[in-house]
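Input (FAD-binding oxidoreductase):
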Amino acid sequence: MQTFTPDQAGYREEIAGFQTGISSTPKLVVAATSADDVAAAVRLAAERDLPVSVQATGHGLRAPAEGVLISTRRMTGVTVDPDRGVARVEAGTTWGSVITAAAEHGLAPLSGSAPGVGVVGYTLGGGFGLLGRHFGLASDRVRSAEIVRPDGTRTTGPLDAGIVTALEFALVPVTTLYGGGLYFDAAKIPDVLRTWRDWTADLPDTVGTSVAMLPYPDLPMVPEPLRGKHIAHIRVAYLGTDGDQLVAPLRALGPLQDTLTTMPYTDSGQIAAEPPIPHAYLGDNRVLPTLPDDVLSTVLDLAGPAAPVPTVLIIDLLGGAYQHSSAPDFTADSRYTVRALSLVEPDAATIQAAHAKLFAPLDPMSTGRLRSFVYGQPLG
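Output:
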C-alpha cells in the first residue's frame, strides 16, 4: 500500500483533482490500487482517530480533505458482461473507459456530459445524464455495490453504507444518437431562451436537452466563430431518427455554428464539449416546475452577457423518467434545473454573493436542487 505524507515527493500531485479551488491538507494519502488497500486505509484511519476522505477525479470536491485521503485513481478496472447487459467498474474508473468498453458490445452506460468524470462519484450523486429522461438516473441502474464499512471490513451493500470500491450497473442498448449543439451570438440569446423553453413543452422522453449561456475566452483553442463572445448553446441528445425535423424550430433562429449530426455514442462527450482542463469553480442550482418569462429575464439579467460576474448558466430539461426516480432530488413537479457555475475570480465570496442574488427570486417556486450540480462548496 503506497502512502504519501506532506513532506514527501508526489504528495501534491496525488491530492490534485479537477477542482482546484479547494486546498486539501490530509495528514496521509493512500494511493489505493485495490479494495484491500481501501480497507487497510480505513482501519489505519480508525487506529489514528482520523477522518477519511475519498477522491478519484476530484470533479465534485466540496470540502477540503483532512485526516486520511484515499486516492482511488489507480483503480480503473472495467469489465462488461454483454449477456447480462451489465458493467462492473472499480472506484477510480471514468465514464470514457466505460463508454469505450460497452460500445464493443453494442451497449452504452447512462453517462453524463463529460467522459472524464468518475463513475462512482457521479452515481453517488444520482447520475443525471444525457439519456436520463428516457432511461432514468444512473443510480437507479445499480445492481450491486462492493463497499468497505467504517470498521474496515469488505462487503456488498447500499451505496451509502461505506466507501464504494466497485459498482455493477445495467447498460442500455444504444450505439448511436442524434446529438450536438447549436451556437448563437449574444444578440439572439433572449429569443433562444424563449424558443428553447417553448420547444421543450411537449418533447418525447427520447430527447435530452439543455440551453447554456457561455462566456468564451478569446483564446486560440476556441473555434473562431465563438472566440471572445458570449454565446447561447443549445445541446441535444436524441434517440430518434428524425433529428433534423425535430430541431427545425431551433435551427430557424440562425446559429453561428451547428454541430448536430448522427454520431456514435462514443462521441457523446462532444455534445456539451466541456473543457477537460482542471480549474477552480463554484456552482449551485435550483429545480423549477416551469420557466415563466420573469425567470428567463432574471437569468438573462443576472447571469447573461451583462452580468457583474462571468457565469456559465445552464438550464436542463427534466421530466420523463426522472419523475419516477427513487432519488430525493426529483419530484413529480421537477421540470427544469437552472445551474450557475463561475470560475473563482476574484474570490469565492464575490461568486457566492452573485449566485445568491440569482437564485433568490427562484427560491419561492423551486422544488429543490440537484446535489450533483453543487460544486466547490458544502451542500448545506
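The mean pLDDT is 95.
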